[in-house]
Design goal:
Helix 5 packs across helix 10. The protein is globular, with a radius of gyration of 23 Å. It has helices at about 25-40, 55-60, 75-85, 105-120, 125-140, 155-160, 175-180, 185-190, 205-220, 225-240, 245-250, 290, 295-300, 320-335, 365-375, 390, 420-435, 450-460, 465-485, 485-505, and strands at about 15-20, 45-50, 65-70, 145-150, 165-170, 255-260, 275-280, 305-310, 345-350, 380, 395-400, 415, 435-440. Helix 14 links the parallel strand 8 (about 305-310) and strand 9 (about 345-350). It has a seven-stranded parallel beta sheet with strand order 3-2-1-4-5-6-7, with helices on both faces. A six-stranded parallel beta sheet has the order 10-9-8-11-12-13, sandwiched between helices. By secondary structure, the chain is an alpha/beta fold. This is Glycosyltransferase family 1 protein.
Length: about 500
């Protein structure tokens, strides 16, 4: 139980959590709000997001909280409709196709151009409906502090418009929240531009192109006709000025604090601004694997395991899955042929793009890994009951293959990253910079080849620096443990901010 923060006897503090429903953004809220109750059982917490989110809240906290449904279209659906309106090619996952193309002058420029639709994907009427709903919620709750997801454009617009004091809770890196504030305009020449996949620091011969991408992004956003039309409509209907995540970098309120789920030791070298508060990895609570899936725990205990999970947004075509399977098969054969070692196992959560079989005899995947499946050394499924964090903390995973969205170094596990887009490239860079793994597709990004991936996976498991990676992973996990639980740190900051506002209100 975390240390409790005392409350004044004459009233309860009230906090409103305001977020998009998409898991990449909402998970830090699901991780943090239980810590709020642990620190202060009397705090009154309200949760506002789109419909359908209540089961996720109930799954991590048994006690009731007050839920408010935001009226209007959720962000991901709005992005999909926006791309359809503007004839933007997109993937089955509703991402612009430019996000998954090999980085380069043309593709990176197109991806940067498509990113503006992520910030403001709404029509004028859609934006006005969501904004008005959030304004009503904020006024109804009348919280001492609002904690908002920094990508929730209608929420930011409402908070700026009402002049309400708020904080941001973000799963992003320190660099993402502070790069434009670094001295000597380092954002232009030192840190890789969005979608560039350049290494850090940016090689000197690529600095002109990096500067171009940064300036191109700023100009594209400023000239965005769709955004300006939404801004004009919203102002005419409500009198509010449209605000986006860009305002958090260039026009933030003086009192704003941005809480990020990482540590300086886990990020690119960066000067941390006073308003950016690194909390450490903010990870959802989950029961140990022995409770959530005892059978899986028993299976994992049979031998060292590679855990493959490319996230809910990354769906693999059959040929891409076969390339990954072929790399795994090569490494498994190499490891398992060595005498005196426990058989290497693979647990793969596979999200498919299209219809194909992973285990049926004669299928492409079965042709590659059929023998290993029949020996129960490989398990492939589109759904695993246990939470990913429970699997990683089981003590049996020796390597995690993921897309770069995990954002956690607290499990002492070596990693192979297969980034697909945007900040995922940054994660792959950090994994190599920190010495805990390899970028599995650097030369063929965002795709991978069986030969290239097999080499990187072999490096991680049996290469000359394999033991050094293992040791470094343990060291970074120790740093995370020493710094304390990220969700608890975030909750302490939120409660302190809330308390300060509450005291001021009580004194009026």
């Amino acid at each position: 139980m975390a240390e409790q923060v005392s409350a004044k006897p004459n009233g309860h503090r009230k906090i409103l959590l305001l977020t998009n429903i998409e898991h990449g953004e909402s998970n830090v809220f699901l991780a943090t709000f239980p810590a709020l109750f642990e620190l202060d059982p009397d705090v009154e917490v309200h949760f506002a997001t789109y419909g359908g989110f209540e089961p996720f809240v109930d799954a991590v906290w048994e006690q009731p909280i007050v839920f408010h449904e935001i009226k209007g279209i959720p962000a991901l659906r709005a992005v999909h409709e926006c791309m359809q309106r503007q004839n933007v090619s997109h993937t089955e996952n509703l991402l612009p196709k430019s996000f998954t193309m090999p980085p380069g002058l043309v593709n990176t420029s197109k991806a940067i151009d498509d990113t503006r639709r992520i910030f403001v994907p709404y029509t004028g009427p859609q934006m006005t409906e969501i904004f008005s709903s959030i304004v009503d919620i904020i006024k109804t709750v009348n919280a001492d502090l609002v904690v908002v997801n920094g990508l929730l454009t209608p929420g930011l617009t409402a908070l700026y418009h009402l002049g309400v004091r708020f904080a941001c809770l973000s799963p992003n890196s320190i660099k993402d929240c502070s790069a434009p504030l670094q001295p000597h305009a380092a954002v232009l020449w030192k840190y890789p531009a969005l979608f560039s996949a350049f290494s850090y620091p940016v090689p000197w011969h690529l600095i002109p192109l990096n500067i171009y991408f940064c300036i191109y992004g700023a100009i594209t956003f400023a000239r965005d006709k769709e955004r300006r039309a939404v801004m004009k409509y919203l102002q005419a209907e409500t009198g509010a000025q449209l605000r986006t995540p860009i305002d958090l970098l260039r026009n933030r309120p003086p009192s704003l604090k941005i809480l990020v789920g990482t540590l300086p030791e886990l990020d690119f070298p960066v000067i941390v601004p006073d308003h950016v508060l690194p909390c450490g990895p903010i990870i959802r609570q989950a029961p140990p694997l022995s409770e959530s899936d005892p059978a899986l725990q028993t299976w994992l205990a049979k031998g060292p395991t590679i855990y493959i999970n490319l996230g809910s947004m990354c769906r693999l075509l059959e040929d891409d899955a076969v390339e990954l399977a072929s790399a795994v098969q090569v490494v498994m054969k190499k490891v398992n042929e060595q005498p005196g070692t426990s058989p290497l196992q693979v647990l793969w959560k596979l999200k498919k793009a299209g219809e194909y079989s992973a285990s049926e005899a004669g299928s492409k995947l079965h042709n590659v890994l059929g023998k290993e499946m029949e020996a129960d050394l490989v398990r492939i499924s589109d759904w695993i009951q246990a939470e990913p964090i429970s699997i990683l903390r089981s003590g049996h995973v020796v390597c995690s293959i993921h897309h770069g969205g995990a954002n956690s170094f607290s499990e002492a596990i070596r990693q192979v990253v297969l980034p697909q887009w945007t900040d995922c490239y940054d994660y792959a860079q950090r994994v190599e910079m920190l010495g805990v793994g390899r970028w599995g597709s650097r030369d063929t990004k965002p795709k991978w080849t069986s030969q290239g991936l097999a080499r990187k996976l072999s490096d991680v498991l049996q290469g000359e620096t394999s033991e050094a990676m293992k040791k470094r992973a343990v060291e970074l996990a120790g740093v995370c443990k020493e710094k304390g639980n990220g969700a608890v740190h975030a909750a302490k900051i939120i409660l302190a901010e809330c308390h300060e506002n509450w005291v001021k209100a009580e004194g009026k």
